[in-house]
Design goal:
8-stranded parallel β-sheet, 6 helices
Length: 230
């Protein structure tokens, strides 16, 4: 079923919209006419953005379990972890990514094969964009910093009233489960993604406002969209 997406956007450009609070400092009007990927609970922002992204990607187990009704109502193709296929039927425009547990972060550019999680849903989106043939990927909202501290990848129940680490104050509200980020593993995975893209003559540009990740080449969103990047 995933074969239908092979190279459907070959040579084109897309934007991966991450969920950091810097999105609220980003000119989202520039994203409206672009192909775009959104992830997890980004749908909370669709109304304020004034547009619906092209694709949804979800791999976080707590998000897929706790917010199933919201996600199933989204109007775009939805790519979710194969383990949750019973919750996300194909008739709801759902497609499956095989994301088995793995200690390595090998970049898999073929979504018909088992992929790697890489500690972040953004890594799944990068592999998906590669499979679709996008030549240039621009990332926004990848702040790569969290005020919440703890053991990476540990599940916990949110105790804070306001979520300051994501684009919306109710992104992970008090009382829901979430998984603490693993920024070190994410960086290792991002390095694999950059190498794979560059080997294929493609690019990943990080246009996050004041983003802390140092793996990808940097540019403002405006310059990236004008191709004004060295």
């Amino acid at each position: 079923m995933n074969l239908r997406f092979k190279d459907i956007h070959k040579g084109q450009r897309c934007i991966i919209i991450c969920n950091g609070p810097s999105i609220n400092k980003t000119n989202m009007d520039l994203v409206k006419s672009e192909y775009s990927f959104c992830m997890n609970r980004s749908y909370l922002m669709f109304e304020s953005w004034g547009f619906t992204p092209s694709f949804f990607v979800g791999s976080a187990m707590h998000v897929l379990r706790q917010f199933k009704t919201d996600i199933l109502a989204l109007p775009m193709p939805k790519f979710v972890d194969f383990k949750f296929r019973k919750l996300y039927p194909v008739e709801k425009d759902c497609y499956y990514l095989r994301l088995p547990p793995a200690s390595d972060n090998v970049f898999v550019g073929d979504i018909t094969l088992p992929m790697r999680v890489g500690g972040t849903v953004t890594y799944s989106a990068l592999q998906l964009a590669y499979y679709m043939g996008f030549e240039t990927v621009i990332i926004i909202g990848m702040d790569h910093r969290f005020s919440q501290q703890g053991v990476p990848s540990t599940s916990e129940v949110r105790k804070q009233e306001i979520d300051k680490d994501h684009m919306h104050p109710n992104y992970f509200p008090k009382g829901v489960k979430w998984e603490l980020p693993d920024l070190v593993r994410s960086e290792m995975a991002y390095a694999q993604a950059r190498a794979a893209y560059e080997k294929a003559g493609r690019r990943i540009i990080d246009a996050t406002v004041d983003g802390a990740c140092t793996i990808f080449e940097k540019a403002t969103l405006e310059n990236a969209l004008r191709n004004d990047v060295l």
